[in-house]
Amino acid sequence: MGIGPYVLAKVAVLLPLLAVVDTLMLGVLRALDRLPPLGWRTYGELFLTLLLCSLAALALGLLVSAAVTDPAQATLALPMLCFPQVLFVGAILPVPEMAAPGRWLSYAMSNRWAFEGLAHSLGVEQLWGSGRSPLGPPLLASYGDSFSRAIAIDWALLGGFAVLFLVATGIVLARRTPNVG
């Protein structure tokens, strides 16, 4: 049995659990009225975006796990990967407002595409553009066209990150594992 099936087996076990967590999160947010009643299609888009984001994060975690030699290294490596995922997503500072190096880094952050996809599905652009808050139009201007691309593009990017990280995990494991047989 090659390395690939081991990686896929971990994904097969963990992804359904992440799907349950994503579903529960959406359910709780809706039950607490933190998400509006937008219909099944919107909630389907939100769920798929969250699930693809979860898959990309899982794949990145598996890559880190494969690349390190002991748990202490993983403990040090994961924050170095997680902090940029928070800082360069666009939720703290809109990507168009970032300095050029920050904008460039944001392209490599899977969470950026999840954030922008979620905002697209929730209609943030329309809400800020025509809502009652005077803060909406300036916020919309600061984000530019961040939320205007088709959701399928965000999904493709998230899926691409997941595939890239899973393939890299397989390569790392293949190089670290001696051939048996």
UniProtKB/TrEMBL annotation:
InterPro entries: ABC2_TM
Domain ABC-2 type transporter transmembrane: 4-120
Pfam families: ABC2_membrane (PF01061)
Signal peptide location: none
Coiled-coil residue spans: none
Transmembrane segments: 7-26, 46-69, 76-95, 155-174
Keyword Transmembrane: yes
Keyword ATP-binding included in the entry's annotation: no
Entry keywords, A to Z: Membrane, Transmembrane, Transmembrane helix
Identification of the protein by name: ABC transporter permease
Predominant cellular place of this UniProt entry's protein: membrane
UniProt membrane topology term: Multi-pass membrane protein
Subcellular localization(s) per the UniProt record: Membrane
